Fold:
Amino acid sequence: MKIKPDDFRITPGSKVNLAKLPTAAEQNISKQDGHEALRPMIKRLRELQEVLYAQGKHKVLVVFQAMDAGGKDSTIRNVIGPLNPQGVRVTSFKAPTPEELSRDYLWRIHRETPGKGMMRVFNRSHYEDVLIVRVKELVPRKVWSKRYEQINQFERLLYDEGTTIVKFFLHISKDYQKQRLQRRLDRPDKHWKFNPDDLAERARWNDYQVAFEDAISQCSPRHAPWYVVPAEHRPFRNLLVAQTLIDTLESLDMKYPEPTFDPAKITID
Amino acid sequence: MKIKPDDFRITPGSKVNLAKLPTAAEQNISKQDGHEALRPMIKRLRELQEVLYAQGKHKVLVVFQAMDAGGKDSTIRNVIGPLNPQGVRVTSFKAPTPEELSRDYLWRIHRETPGKGMMRVFNRSHYEDVLIVRVKELVPRKVWSKRYEQINQFERLLYDEGTTIVKFFLHISKDYQKQRLQRRLDRPDKHWKFNPDDLAERARWNDYQVAFEDAISQCSPRHAPWYVVPAEHRPFRNLLVAQTLIDTLESLDMKYPEPTFDPAKITID
Structure:
């Protein structure tokens, strides 16, 4: 199966209608086949990440957003997990602390952005500040409505200063979410993942879809694209995310750094 | 092969003589066999780490120290790498920044200690402040000589407040280091790992061994033990580190948290 990330990238300036975008891959793929297909991609990703780290030039920021039970944790475990943890760090943004709330909403985000040679992965992100914050009216419209442009400016700063940004929205249907939440109730070892408050969020499904549509539509410049990933077939989802990261890293044309010494002239006593 | 971490744990109060401790496992094991043996251990470690994260009660700190080319990076990649990056974070301590140097040496360490449910892995650590700092006389003896007790007090604080601490010294011989450094010179894709300054450190091999002996001898309380790992046979090294982590995590007697709701009474609309 040839996977084309470009097909899932939101074109700058387009108005996204999530109901028209697939939540499941057209062609299903078995767990076993998906596993087989993923292996060489992970190998390639590892190579690329090692050069990223060795060269110490580029910075890579990967954002994951989804509705609850959309598969952020699972995608990160499967695709990001196999990379070298020394060069890759995952930050899960939870409800902000009082210290964080006392600053602007981008303060805690900025602190976690990647340094040279690093890949930083955000499980949730500053986009929550135009998603849950908007849907639950945690700040008034006149505050959140400015944030799309603020986020664009912020991501532009990161880009101008050498950060490559990729954003994934793991797209699922409301029915699929029901299945996944039910699974958390049915399996004792998944109870810890269930939060009764999630049902209140689920009740606002449509509001969230609109908020996601606005965020994705308004914050998809060429240098910080959103990919809307059909996330219900998990093998396909992993392959698409992995291929997108490969394509993104390959486009950086990275190289191992030139040694500052002549290896042939060094003798180890 | 039955691996017994206890055989490699330093007894509190003992005087360590590194020359008498093995740098290679008695029984070699092939790369293939090591890989096969490691797989179920990684699976077990993943299960344990998920419960650690889910329960959100314990905090785990894992320290790796070694001479240059001792295999810290490789061990972390092989044993820590497969764990879920959301619950595990690696910090590589480099030469301190001006901001870090303007505080005491434990300031930057304390900031990186694990929170509840987390495993934090240190590639180098506060022990550098009684290793390179001592060997290169970056501070006078009257300063570094107090640090063993300070480190013990610091680790005791972490322990008293709920942190489980495990420390690994990856033990290699001077000859083996030579082989590994030479490999970095011979392979263009490893040049970036070679630093000509490492040769100056290598010239002080004996001073470092003495500094390691003092650090390990003086800072091995029961609640924060050092394991001196024979690190030249890498498959064995990985298995020993993995088994030690498994034993340590199993000793915590962790459980998934009890749900605060009755799963049977919840209906998802």
Notes: The CA atoms of residues 155 and 224 of chain B lie 7 Å apart. The first strand of chain B starts at residue 59 and ends at 66.
